[in-house]
Design brief:
The protein is an alpha+beta fold. It is about 25% helix and about 25% strand.
Length: about 550
């Protein structure tokens, strides 16, 4: 008992003693590694003279190094990811000559950008996840969904002082998350991508993370760096970090970049928002074409409480039983929804009625840099039910891709199903381009559509069971502990779902559900600097203003 305590104390002492002396040189060394030209001679296969066919598959061929995926066709373009040698990508529309290279636009694991075409070669076979008639290994016994949640509530993600005890669940942080510079935290366990997601929710755009080894040496992970830079880390922690691990976070600046109204579809910055007025004393009237149809009368405003102001660009309050709008601010403005998109992915997954089917995955979360993931790697075998939890709890973009390809056969086919769902529910403000919600041209949704989408989702028992769960362990060819990143769920009485989201373009987003006295109300918050606070304010107002018959 004494030896582990002494060892942990030594690790903390090492951190405090060496942080100032070693952090800057280590950061400098990593930066040099990122910028340096690899010493190996890169394999440079000759790309087709006329380029690749849009929609075809290509393989990264760099002779062992990573291929940089950039935001623009230029050596000066921002690096979005480093694609490992052998990665299979989808060729997108776009081929440009610049800086002495032919640049090809490609898509890989939900990221779209530009790569030097000379390091691509035609792929020999497609790599989509497919449904196998034989399923995953029979040694993995089927298991039913849990009847009730018994796990403890996870610690909310927030920049708060270090409490007395360490986190007990994965994807949780104890400690102060810095806006910039560095800070010391205790990590609940998981992958570097999960650390980045949690840090972004705390306002930090991670540059790197550091841990001390058993001998006191520093081991670092640099986000966006080529794979060989992070090889020491990935070799030592192939399955992510264990719980109760002290970490140094190095932040490059605030993660929440405000989205200008002028950049949003349909928004005119010269037009002020509609002034807030007190609700009329009388019944609300739901739209005539809502799906599913109302199963109860709308509530009645018993008080003339003026609705509160919010920080959100768009917000909406919806009565669940009738579908009537109780409050809206830019309710039909189409904006990037981020991971709220996954509500549609979850609906289609549950409607397919194959939650106990096995899925063999070749989605690789390790190359989805800066992305929230479940943690899938090629060869994983999990049931659809496990992937559904991986989709909605940690907001796994890898789970979204795996589910879409399994259910529809390809990304494009699943997106077609998603937009058909919008049409079926008469949601006309929205359009989807992918199953996860990462930024893409034309991928937009309105607060009104998202509220009705969530209203339908919460009529499906399999979805309500998932989104109300705090912790879950996916059990397949291996086990993956999953924590719910919905920070609103544990802080508001009666909260029972449904989804949060964040990208720099979308800002912080939330669809929340609260049930009191058998009446469910939905609040949608889009692009807010305080989504939980805005949601709490609107729920308080709704339940204090309206009465139900």
């Amino acid at each position: 008992m004494g030896r582990p305590i002494r060892a942990r104390a030594m690790r903390w002492l090492t951190l405090f003693a060496l942080i100032c002396a070693l952090l800057t040189p280590a950061e400098t060394a990593l930066a040099a590694s990122e910028l340096a030209t690899p010493t190996r001679t890169l394999l440079a296969p000759i790309a087709p003279a006329e380029g690749f066919t849009t929609g075809s598959r290509a393989s990264v061929a760099t002779g062992g190094d990573g291929l940089r995926l950039r935001s623009t066709p230029s050596v000066n373009g921002t690096m979005l990811a480093s694609l490992p040698d052998g990665t299979t990508v989808t060729v997108a529309d776009g081929r440009v000559s610049a800086d002495g290279y032919w640049w090809q636009r490609i898509t890989s694991n939900g990221l779209t950008g530009w790569v030097a075409e000379m390091y691509l070669r035609p792929a020999t076979a497609p790599t989509n996840v497919v449904q196998s008639s034989g399923g995953c290994p029979a040694a993995v016994a089927p298991r039913p969904a849990p009847a009730a949640v018994t796990q403890p509530t996870p610690v909310p993600i927030a920049a708060t002082p270090v409490p007395a005890s360490p986190p007990a669940s994965t994807n949780a942080v104890f400690g102060t998350i810095p806006q910039s510079g560095f800070g010391l935290v205790v990590w609940g366990g998981g992958s570097p991508e999960a650390v980045a997601t949690v840090s972004a929710d705390g306002g930090c755009k991670l540059k790197s993370i550091w841990i001390t080894g058993n001998s006191g040496e520093f081991v670092g992970y640099a986000y966006g760096a080529p794979s060989f830079v992070n090889k020491t880390w990935t070799d030592r922690f192939p399955d992510g970090l264990e719980g109760n691990t002290p970490l140094i976070l190095v932040c490059g600046g605030p993660s929440n970049v405000a989205l200008k109204t002028s950049n949003l579809t349909g928004a005119d910055p010269s037009v002020p928002p509609v002034p807030l007025v007190a609700p009329a004393l009388g019944p609300l009237v739901p739209a005539a074409n809502i799906v599913p149809a109302p199963w109860a009368s709308p509530p009645i405003a018993a008080k003339t409480n003026v609705p509160p102001t919010t920080n959100a660009l768009a917000a909406l309050v919806l009565d669940g039983s009738s579908g009537a709008v109780m409050y809206e601010k830019n309710g039909h403005l189409a904006v990037p929804p981020a991971s709220l998109t996954k509500i549609a992915t979850a609906i289609l997954t549950v409607e397919a009625k194959n939650l106990d089917s096995w899925v063999t995955s070749n989605v690789d979360s390790r190359v989805m840099y800066g992305s929230s993931v479940m943690g899938l790697i090629p060869g994983d075998c999990f049931k659809v039910r496990d992937l559904l939890y991986g989709l909605m709890l940690p907001s796994g973009n890898d789970a979204a891709l795996a589910l879409g390809r399994f259910e529809a056969g390809s990304d494009d086919a699943f997106v077609t199903q998603m937009n058909a769902l919008l049409k079926r529910l008469n949601l006309t403000d929205s359009h989807f381009m992918n199953p996860h919600g990462l930024t893409a041209p034309g991928h937009v949704a309105s607060a009104y559509d998202l509220a009705l989408l969530a209203r339908y989702a919460m009529t499906l028992p399999d979805i309500t069971a998932v989104v109300g769960t705090q912790n879950y362990t996916a059990q397949g060819s291996r086990t993956i502990p999953l924590g719910n990143v919905n920070t609103f769920l544990p802080i508001y009485p009666g909260a029972d779902g449904v989804k949060t989201g964040f990208t720099e373009e979308a800002g912080r987003t939330l669809v929340a559900s609260v049930t009191k006295n058998g009446r469910r109300v939905f609040v949608v918050i889009l692009n807010s600097t305080n989504r939980d606070g805005d949601a709490k304010t609107l729920f308080d107002w709704a339940f204090s203003t309206y009465i139900w018959g």
